[in-house]
Amino acid sequence: MNHTQPDKAVSYVTALQALKDDDRLRSLKPRAGIDFASNDYLALASSPRMKRAVTAALEAGTPIGAGGSRLLRGNCEEHETLEADAAKFFGAETSMFFGNGYVANFAVLTTLPQRGDLLVLDSLVHASIHEGARAGRADVRENQHNEPQSVEDTIRDWRSQGGTGRVWIVAESLYSMDGDFAPLESLIAIADRHDAFLMIDEAHATGVYGEQGRGLTARYEGRENLVVIHTCGKALGAAGALVTLTRVLRDFMVNRCRPFIFSTAPSPLMAVAVSEALLILQQEPKHQQRLTDLMAFTHRRIGERGGWRASGSQILPYIVGDNARAMTLASALQARGFDIRGIRPPTVPAGTARLRISLTNNVSEDDVRALLDALAEETGDRDR
User: Fold this and answer.
1) DSSP for 65-97?
2) Which of its termini does the chain have fewer beta carbons within 10 Å around, N or C?
């Protein structure tokens, strides 16, 4: 008896068509135009100094690949040097180097919170945090974005329902799609009040904020109840992520963290690049200052035009709302020479499709003026 086999790809084709119908179909595009899209905030990705450091390491015999996990032969001197330097730089007891921020968030949240604990996530945290929380053993609840009282209420409600474990509060110091800042002081106070841990993702703040780019958590680093993720692939111009934490938590991660134990270690050359980036932050404050000045200039220009509230950071969301309109506007600006990308759900909440305009040292004040003029012309709002 012959049975017709269904096309194995039908379900995928159907899913892709549904995305297209909702104006949410994604595709890869090469980089082109003036950079208003990257997270290379300090323009260190093309730093001659970092290139020289990596070249010198290669010539001195540093391998390209680690050749194994950190618990096998993959634990290189370059990794340990970076972790020691990073702990000192950020003011923490110890640090751990991971291949990227996604893995770092996933690793922490699937290892440190235990069964019977509670994870309280800000509703707008990174996808990697949501994924790590879902894959972990703790109970998971969301609080309203940037609302400390919502965090407090969530914890009390969980306790009233019989929750007895440790609480973990998770937030970003600077949110990647809205460009707004977390109420860190209030979150620290809540964590202390409830004997909770606080995990902060500094992905978009490391290198940009704080003395010498130490981030928005700099004044709190070293606390026993604080774990911080410092991404290396954004303002630091390299790749990877550093987790700063206490020695006890680090030892637990080394022994129990599956993404750490069963992954080949990051390239030792990347550890060299990150180490050099940390030195640049300390020795060349001009990079951080130039971006600070560019942010101030851009915020003033937006304020003078009216009709658009700047975020206060280097991340400037221009809310459009409709998916198709957002992508049409992005395409129009790309055609005029600006690399700006449209952001649609599920990356952002439904009905809030937007342009994510990113300020970096790859652009000038003249570039900003030209972009704002082009945006006003394309939207028909000359006041913007």
Assistant:
1) S--SBTTTTT--HHHHHHHHHHHHHHT-SEEEE
2) N
User: Which residues pair with residue 319 across a beta bridge?
Assistant: 354
Q: Which secondary-structure segment (H or E) carries 35?
A: strand 34-35
Burial class (CB in 10 A: 0-12, 13-18, 19+), 193: exposed
pLDDT at position 382 over 50: no
In the numeric block, which tokens belong to residue 16?
């892709």
Domains of the chain: 48-283 (3.40.640.10), 285-379 (3.90.1150.10)
Q: How far apart are CA 224 and CA 247, in angstroms?
A: 10
Give which of 86, 137, 144 is closest to 114, Cα–Cα: 137
Nearest to 356 by CA among 204, 228, 235, 244: 204
Report cis status (omega within 30 of 0) of the bond before 268: no
Collapsing DSSP states into helix, strand and coil, what is residue 243? strand
**Given this model, what pLDDT does residue 22 score?**
84
Residues marked active site are found at: 39, 126, 172, 176, 201, 204, 234
Shortest CA distance to 81 belongs to which of 91, 71, 64, 95? Answer: 95
Strands 197-201 and 226-231: parallel
For residue 13, the tally of other CB atoms under 10 A from its CB is 10
What rounded mean pLDDT belongs to the chain? Answer: 95
| 202 Cα distance to chain centroid | 7
Q: Amino acid identity, residue 144?
A: Q
* CB-side neighbour CA atoms (13 Å) of 374: 19
Helix, strand or coil, per DSSP, at residue 143: strand
User: Could you report the per-residue pLDDT of 187-227, keeping only the tens digit for each?
Assistant: 999 999 999 999 999 999 999 999 999 999 999 999 999 99
Phi, psi of 306 (to 5 degrees): 75, 165
- pTM flag (> 0.90): yes
Helix (H/G/I), strand (E/B), else coil: 49? helix
Query: Would you state the structure tokens that stand for residue 265, as one six-digit string?
Result: 């270690």
pLDDT tens track for 64-113? 999 999 999 999 999 999 999 999 999 999 999 999 999 999 999 999 99
Q: If you count them, how many residues does the chain have?
A: 384
- 3-state class of 32 per DSSP? coil
